[in-house]
Amino acid sequence: MRKPCTLYIPKDISEVMDLLGDMMLSAPKFVDDSGYFPDQNIDSEFFALNEGLKLIRERVGEEDYSALVELSNRMRAHFEADPEDKTGDGIKGRDCIVAMEDLLKAAAQRKRR
Predict the structure, then answer these.
(1) Which residues, at least 6 apart from 99, have a Cβ–Cβ distance to it below 8 Å?
(2) Closest by alpha carbon to 34, among 42, 44, 26?
(3) Which residues contact 68 (CB under 8 A, 6 or more apart)?
(4) Cβ contact 37:5 at 8 Å
(5) Which of 26, 27, 1, 10 is nearest to 68 (CA)?
(6) Of 16, 57, 60, 75, which sits with the fewest C-beta atoms within 10 Å of its C-beta?
(7) Mean pLDDT by 10-residue block, N- to C-terminus, for the chain (113 residues)?
(8) Where are the alpha helices (DSSP H) in 1-113?
């Protein structure tokens, strides 16, 4: 009998960045081929991302939070439109990840000053 996996929710900017890096590698299907995370899919990954964004909302500020949520929604739409990574929407989804990383890096820099 398989033990159910606990969904990991990132708790700070660096953990959200780590999740985005993992998403870059597992896009567009977000399925774990190793067998260690059999419940991982597009729904679980975007749930974790969006919940993590809620946890860092105050830290990044309202304007950046809104931009991050919009990018997350666009990213998911691109990946759902190109599940086989053949039409170019997958690249647009990955571009959203890069834009999110840039926003998060800038927010982290502002907090250090």
Answers:
(1) 71
(2) 26
(3) 53, 60, 100, 103, 104
(4) yes
(5) 10
(6) 57
(7) 74 97 95 86 96 97 98 98 95 98 94 66
(8) 13-26, 42-55, 57-60, 62-81, 89-112
